[in-house]
Amino acid sequence: MSENKEPHAPKFVYDFTEGNKDLKDLLGGKGANLAEMTNLGLPVPPGFTITTEACKVYLDSGEEPAALRDEVSAHLDALERKMGKKLGQADNPLLVSVRSGAKFSMPGMMDTVLNIGLSDASVQGLATQAGDERFAWDSYRRLIQMFGKTVLGVDGDLFEEALDKAKTTKKVTVDTDLEAADLKKLVTTFKKIVKKEAGREFPQDPREQMDLAIKAVFDSWNGDRAKLYRRQERIPHDLGTAVNVCSMVFGNLGPDSGTGVAFTRDPASGHQGVYGDYLQNAQGEDVVAGIRNTVPLAELERIDKKSYDQLMKIMETLENHYKDLCDIEFTIERGRLWMLQTRVGKRTAGAAFRIATQLVDQGLIDETEALQRVTGAQLAQLMFPRFDEHAKVDQVARGIAASPGAAVGKAVFDSYTAVKWSRSGEKVILVRRETNPDDLDGMIAAEGILTSRGGKTSHAAVVARGMGKTCVCGAEELEVDTKRRRMTVPGGHVVEEGDVISIDGSTGKVYLGEVPVVPSPVVEYFEGRMHPGADDADELVEAVHRMMAFADRKRRLRVRANADNAEDALRARRFGAQGIGLCRTEHMFLGDRRELVERLILADTEEEREASLKALLPLQKQDFVELFEAMDGLPVTIRLLDPPLHEFLPDITELSVRVALAESRQEPHENELRLLQAVHRLHEQNPMLGLRGVRLGLVIPGLFTMQVRAIAEAAAERKAAKGDPRAEIMIPLVGTVQELEIVREEADQVVAEVEAATGTKLKLAIGTMIELPRAALTAGEIAEAAEFFSFGTNDLTQTVWGFSRDDVEASFFTAYLEKGIFGVSPFETIDKDGVGSLVKSAAEAGRRTRPDLKLGVCGEHGGDPESVHFFHEVGLDYVSCSPFRIPVARLEAGRAATQSTGSDHR
After folding, report:
1. Domain PEP-utilising enzyme mobile, which positions (predicted)?
2. Considering the entire predicted model, what is its pTM?
3. What pairing do the DSSP bridges indicate for beta strands 470-473 and 448-451?
4. Is the pLDDT of residue 484 over 80?
5. From CA 348, how far away is CA 543, in angstroms rounded?
6. DSSP 347
7. End-to-end CA distance of the chain, in Å?
């Protein structure tokens, strides 16, 4: 009889010596990397990590796992033995930090508590241990302040106001000028604030402090700012956060101590060198909060050369180990260096491209891995305009270039106003002394962020870089007064809320008024006006050029353009388009030709209709001749007329007024009256689901055959001129194969007539758009009459979801995004579960019927990075998008072809 074995209970706590960098799902990014650094033999303070699985149990049930307390106790005992002291004991206290650490970096979005273990009983023991009474009381007031705000929910401003009052009373301006006696009083004040606001005393039991802090970190995963950040960065909501309990090391023990953040390369430019910030006599939160202005990391060589040299060696070790830019947090405690965190660092778009090519040249990564280090979203950022360096400007300040871009907007001084004005259509610049996680809403809404404090590692800088948002930090010349909603610039000029300013995140310069912009050098490169070279702009172009070459060599998906005229087609070709995936012929019927369309709609007899079509034919033919010439040798997919006919007629209200005025004045108005009658006749409650697309071709005799004839004659003319036209005729809004068969039969007949008349053999492919659910569901039948499918995902999204894009985006999409119903608009990124499943099943069914069926997509999703990956996965042949999105689609198609599950540089 076999023995029944109990399944192994899950393990919820790991010592830093037990994990590694590949356990991010379980230990979170911070915990996995602390373990990795420990394994590398780097100086990491001992500690342990509570897993994301424990967090998930807590979030699901509201209670911590039953085994968690005992596991934490066992690891705490081991930590106390290793450190030779006990948590919070009176004479020789062990203090710990409790820090969040999700799989993906979420800077400042979740909670951290330092100095846990301090109490009225142990603070004097810490003072004796450190030989510094001021340090002990400073650490205690920090604990009460962080614990009160983070764990007990006390308004953080109350602590800040008490701290400011203490400095004012002492007549000092910085925290470090407060003495031990002042800090003792401040501790008493802080404890009173906690008692009044939280309704309880500040906990004196060190284990209670730690347990409450762990729960607070778990709870912060579902805090408003964390959820908003995850939606912004498209981080899944079900991952949970790990919790890292780490023995404290102190950077606030005097001038031979300090804390800093370092980058192995410049996160703004990608250049190699010594980059980062250092702050003497401070704890880590002081640096990232930007509350005190730091010194450049290079200054550490003068301050503490031994620690500086050791740090440089560690940075080299970490970059070679991770094979990427590393972001490092460190503390020096009385001349001893400790590593508190490392992670693959967030970087600007330009830095991402430069670093990827540098690492290839250094032999650290190959081209395939390099493609995973850049994204289409970053490339799109590089294509944004920049300020015109020759423009007449009024520069008033210069800060730290924290995140590049050219941002212009009205100055606002709080997050609420930034969001409110932005929703009203205003472009705004969020101006703060320093930002904190509560400013995230405003940072998202703003065109750019400007702060008077902080450096490249401040909250504003790190979050802005992650979002690709323009940011200038540490502009110390600016005097920001958020209460009076104004800032004073050198010379005494006052910028009031609502005044326009411009900030340059590439140079750190701040200007009054609106500075004109010029095209990006990357766009000039794609346009053929700039070539790779040696200066800084050309260095970026060189990096982009190389990454695009990598992508083009690797990708399977071809990239076409949505273009309706020769000018757009030529631009698309310069941007790398491999044909036209959607030419919307309705755009050719506007302007001067609208009158001919009106005649067609108003035609009462077959003769009048034929006359209108005959007049339109040569104009259509010339359109196609120009397109075929611009795209010679490449496919051109031409969609026959799609929108409802009433779109070519005047607005019903405007026309009614004209008729009424003419009648009141007894003026001739016969034509306007006929137009009005036609508008009423063609009026539909829901025109997007009415008489349009293939239905028009079947109801209006001669309309589609005129267009097919124009295409065929244009192709014949180009062939006679030794050109290579490759026309594809696309029938829109097909819902059943019978519709396509009827139109196809008429089209084949017209093509045969043109071939006979010109003596030219034409090969015109005929296919259809799949943009209705029924078409997707019957794709196998439709493929019998189609040589290609092009998925019209804009209409397919509307018809699958049952809502109109023009109406719903303004009415309820914001609420749906805020409530998490949408992670992102389904019109922006394809809804894989709904619309995507129809695309996948239709593609499979179509190819079962016709194995050589060509498959593409021509909705806006064709240029969306995430959607491109989906289209690659389901086996489409090409995507089509607007000309300016072609480089993005090319890059993402290359990334999709080389996608590695092991790479994630979110």
Report:
1. 426-508
2. 0.80
3. parallel
4. yes
5. 14
6. -
7. 52
Q: Cα torsion for 76, 78, 81, 86, to the nearest 10°?
A: 10
Amino acid at residue number 802:
G
The residues annotated with a catalytic role in the active site are: 459, 858
* Span 725-735, average pLDDT: 97
Report the share of the chain in percent with pLDDT over 90: 64
Segment 566-604, tens digit of pLDDT: 988 999 999 999 999 999 888 787 766 777 877 877 777
Determine the average pLDDT of the residues in 496-502: 95
Q: Would you state the structure tokens that stand for residue 841, as one six-digit string?
A: 């099943």
Please, are residues 366 and 360 in contact by the beta-carbon 8 Å criterion? Answer: yes
Query: What is the rounded CA–CA span in Å between residue 183 and residue 169?
Result: 12
d(CA 720, CA 818): 59
**What pLDDT digit, counting tens, does each position of 505-528 carry?**
888 899 999 999 888 889 889 988
Residues 200/152, Cβ–Cβ less than 8 Å: yes
DSSP H helix total and E strand total for the chain: 36, 33
Buried b / exposed e along 519-542 (16+ C-beta atoms within 10 A): ebbbbbbbeeebeeeeeebbbbbb
Nearest residue to 600 via CA among 678, 673, 544, 548: 678
- As a whole number, mean pLDDT of residues 320-341 equals 95
pLDDT of 444-456, one tens digit each?
A: 899 999 999 877 6
Residue type, 590: L
Residues 6+ apart with CB under 8 A from 231: 817, 820, 823
Q: Which tokens in the block code for residue 128?
A: 């004796």
Distance in angstroms (rounded) separating the CA atoms of residues 562 and 583: 6
What is each CA distance from 159 to 118, 134, 189, in whole angstroms? 18, 19, 9
- Look at residue 244 in the predicted model and tell me its pLDDT: 96
What is the total residue count of the chain? 906
**Which token pair is 382?**
């590089």
Residue written as token pair 């192994």:
8
Residue 672: pLDDT over 80 = no
- Report the run of H or E that residue 640 belongs to, with start and end: none
Query: Hey, is 333 helix, strand or coil?
Result: strand
Q: Which two tokens stand for residue 619?
A: 């104009």
Determine the Cα–Cα distance for residues 854 and 877; give it in Å rounded to an integer: 6
